[in-house]
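Worked problem 6 (solution included).
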Amino acid sequence: MGVLSWDKPQRAVSVEEWKGIVADSAPPGVYTPNMSREDRLKWKAKLIRPKDTPPRVEIRKSFNMGGGAQVLIIVSLGGGYNYGPGYRVEQRWGGTTKGINVHVSANSAACMTFDQWGEMMAAVAEARAVLESDMRGQ
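Solution. The predicted structure is:
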């Protein structure tokens, strides 16, 4: 059994309420996954197959320690990705996502135990394996 939970999470609030949560210059809901508390504490994964970039896996998890940091990990095979309409990392920091395999962002300090750190590494490895398998299947 893998570390990642691939099932659709339970919503914590309505979509309308969630879209009302904003962060400076970020897409709606950023760092605020619309997931139940139980789902936020799991390594939640979603395989995304956009039309304009190669597939990627987005992993989200919240940590109770360190102020309750919410972490987003994007795993790709290096072909580039974007966050969604109107938001591109190139506009944010002038870089590019081409060649980037793992992108980690958090809204606060993500304090982890060694076990949680190991789980994060296992989650990234599992996401990579899913992407490699997905690419072979296409």
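Discussion: DSSP finds four helices and four strands in the chain.
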